Amino acid sequence: MDLFEYQGKHYFARFGIPVSPGGTADTVDEALAAAATAGYPVVVKAQVQVGGRGKAGGIKLAATPDEARAHAGAILGMDIKGHRVKRLWVEHATDIAKEYYVSFTLDRGARAHLAMVSARGGVDIEQVAAEEPEALARAHIDPSVGLTEHVARRLVEEAGLDVDARDGAIGIMLNLYRCYVEGDADLVEINPLVLATDGRVLALDAKVTLDDSAAFRHPEWEQFRDIDELDERERLAKSKGLQYVGLDGDVGIIANGAGLAMSTCDVVNQVGGRPANFLDIGGGASAEVMANALDVINSDHKVKAIFINIFGGITRGEEVANGIVTALGRVDIAAPMVIRLDGTNAEAGREILRSVESDQVLSRPTMLEAARTAVELARARSSEDRADAGSGAGGPGGDA
Amino acid sequence: MSIFVDEHTKVIVQGLTGGQGRFHGLRNRAYGTKVVAGVRAGKGGQNVEGIPVFDSVAEARAATGADASFVSVPPASAPAAILEAAQAGIGFIVCITEGIPAQDEARMFNILRREHSGTRLLGPNCPGIISPGKTNIGITAGEIALPGGPVGIVSRSGTLTYQALHELKQKGIGVTTCVGIGGDPVPGTTFIDCLAAFEADPETRVVMLIGEIGGSEEEAAADFIAREMATPVVAYIAGVTAPPGRKMGHAGAIVSGTSGTAQAKMDALTSAGVKVGQNPTEAGELAAQLVAALPY
Fold first, then answer.
1. If you compute the radius of gyration of chain A from its CA atoms, what whole number of angstroms results?
2. I need a labelling partner for B111 at 20 to 30 A (CA). Which of A244, A398, B15, B203 fits?
3. Binding-face residues of B in 183-212 toward A, CB within 8 A
4. Kind and range of the H or E element at B264?
5. Averaged over B125-132, what is the pLDDT?
6. For the residues of A19-82, what is the DSSP string, one character each?
7. What is the per-residue pLDDT for A120?
8. Dist. CA A217–CA A183, nearest whole Å
9. What is the number of other CB atoms lying within 10 angstroms of the CB of residue A157?
10. Does A260 contact B160 at a Cβ distance shorter than 8 Å?
11. Omega cis (within 30) before B185
12. B112: how many CB neighbours lie within 10 A of its CB?
């Protein structure tokens, strides 16, 4: 789960990482109230989970209430790379002397944590890494040992942080590491970490990605869940506990296992179609789970055909087949479905499906054949829709 | 030959008294795996369909001489269960548990690496390992694999592993060992560990590698193949259509920026001389061609 900047700053504050005082605002009036509390001058910042907010006009400095009013009004509702701004973070503006970068994340290759520090903050760090790799100091940290002050000091020295900023930066790094480990984050990043003209060191931005697997021991994360960020299909899938990612094609995908689900999307793409989604019903999926999955796919009006690709390991063929039969009885599935069933108890599953097979429910023996059939069906239905739309618009009695 | 395990491997199941542990433990035993004991604190002295249950791994090992463990316990207790097995001297641990917090997994793995360097962990969040006709530890449906060889399989994904076994079986091709390393952020066993073991195994004469988006393990594997391997390798990478920045089911499967893409991995493997299939079926066909071209 990715946190918004304001959520990240609240999370940071719990671990003693200094940030500038501020507050959130969903309206211009709230922005003015937050600004008055924080104290002018203030920075008005769009809360969206996408990079490049500043360049897009989503971050503005305001010296007076009039300016704050104008900026808040302009930024609220703004579209930044497809993300609509619904909330602002308004904080007291910091007089910046220097900008730095610090982060912790897991290095999968090394199977250890990776600390990165740079004196080139406030810019795209991937660009720094590519153009000036020596400007980025790195160290692997053994997760069973943790970050020592010694390593933190070596990193800030190696990165060339100004002498005045070093002690503050080291203190923040030790707390940020605690936030990363005890706070169960996959990534914590401060860009920029700044040295203010008054000598303080503080975090002016906060990027935090929490590890969903650790949610069971963090009841406080519930407040961070912003279901509004998801599209409608994803919201429905989430409420049903399904692993779903919305894509923009017209072939709905249901598969068991993340790898097979990804592969199913790929194969649809290879035979000339476009997947509408990634949906993994997981291992050991029951009839109920399959019915839920079909509900989610059915809610996507762009879906013109459904491809169900199941290879039973823990998942059993007859359970999947029963789920399809249940779903057919429960909801009116709009699109035709093509089913490929293999593995554990596949024959029993195919037998069950035979009773419901029709021109809307088809079985195919292999993944490739099933993908081709699903793509053909989607294409045929799309052109029918276009023909309907055409005749509707052009016909004498058309109400279009 | 098989790698890591064989028909003599004696297995204990940590969590044998739980739903999943019981189901898979008994299924493994029915396949022919030597499942010698179960472990569950507080249930020592009981048995599960004739398999004795002990309170600790140390007791189970002392009583049975087990050398491998199959860990099927909930995420919050899995890291401790793995370390308990290593502490008791178990040399090969398979953990199928999904959803272990990454911080716990990273800490556990580094303790294992430092203090129990003789123990190999497979997983977490993996389908396990099967050497068809010899032993099956994990959740793979044994009947979808043909014994014998000459193909060795290593995969990050569970269901794609089944798909690969299935593709080969359709063509009448056997498998020496099929290893599912799992899709978690900190895998105990890597592609390279398995590739090295297959390279050293005279009966594995073709290797099939199944990867997916995220991380750089496939690129590291490509580098290893180019430098160290004479055995031919075929590969398939899932996730060509995955959008950047989205987690595709597995915690590890995420494309960040331009790194971790399926295309970058396929390019790296192709440069290393690996034949890359565009889908599992094509990868199976490429493997079949290599098998048919073997000298005897």
1. 26
2. B15
3. 183, 185-187, 210, 212
4. helix B262-271
5. 95
6. B--EEEESSHHHHHHHHHHH-SSEEEEE--SSS-TTTTT-EEEESSHHHHHHHHHHHTT-EETT
7. 92
8. 10
9. 14
10. yes
11. no
12. 22
Q: What is the mean pLDDT of residues B39-63?
A: 97
| Contacts across the A-B interface (CB distance below 8 Å) | 174
What is the C-alpha to C-alpha distance for residues A129 and A124, in angstroms, rounded to an integer? Answer: 9
Residue with tokens 């429910």: A361
Is the pLDDT at A392 greater than 50? The verdict is: no
Closest CA to A268 of B278, B214, B236, B259: B278
Backbone CA torsion sign across B161, B167, B170, B174: negative
Separation CA A45–CA A60 (nearest Å): 7
Q: What is the full DSSP assignment across B18-37? A: SHHHHHHHHHHHHHT-EEEE
- Asked whether the bond before A192 is cis by omega within 30 degrees of 0, the reply is yes
Three-class SS state of B188? coil
Average pLDDT over residues A208-235: 83
Sign of the C-alpha dihedral computed for residues B269, B272, B278 and B280 taken in this order? negative
Q: How far is CA B4 from CA A286, B131, B261, in A?
A: 33, 9, 30
Mutual orientation of helices A5-14 and A163-182 as an angle, nearest 10°? 90
Burial per residue of A34-47, b for 16 or more beta-carbon CB atoms within 10 angstroms, e otherwise? bbeebeebbbbbbb
Q: Residue A235's pLDDT is what? A: 82
| C-alpha distance from residue A337 to each of A194, A271, A361, B253 (Å) | 56, 17, 5, 27
DSSP structural state of residue B124:
S
pTM of the model: 0.89
Q: List, in order, residues 6 or more apart from A367 with CB less than 8 Å away.
A: A263, A264, A267, A309, A340, B163, B279, B280, B281
ipTM of the modeled complex: 0.89
CA pair distance B203, A164, nearest whole angstrom: 63
Q: Which amino acid is at A44?
A: V
Q: At what angle do helices A258-270 and B158-170 cross, to 10 degrees?
A: 60
Closest chain A C-alpha to B63 CA, distance in angstroms: 31
Count CB-CB contacts under 10 A for residue A30: 17
CB A114 within 8 A of CB A140: yes
pLDDT tens, position by position, A273-293: 999 999 998 766 677 888 899
Residue A207, both tokens: 């990027």
Nearest to B284 by CA among B190, B209, B221, B218: B209
- Give the pLDDT of residue B258: 54
- A 29-58 residues inside an 8 A Cβ radius of B: none
CA–CA gap between residue B138 and residue B177 (Å, rounded): 13
Average pLDDT over residues B54-78: 97
The candidate with the shortest Cα–Cα distance to B1, out of B93, B133, B97, B91, is B133
End-to-end CA distance of chain A: 43
Out of B99, B140, B247, the one facing A313 most closely (by C-beta) is B140
Q: Which of B40, B189, B13 is nearest to B112 (CA)?
A: B189
Q: Which two tokens mark A337?
A: 């479905």
> At which residue do the structure tokens 């299924």 appear?
B27
User: Is there a catalytic annotation at residue A357?
Assistant: no
Nearest partner of A273 among A349, A380, A118, judged by Cα: A380
pLDDT at B255: 55
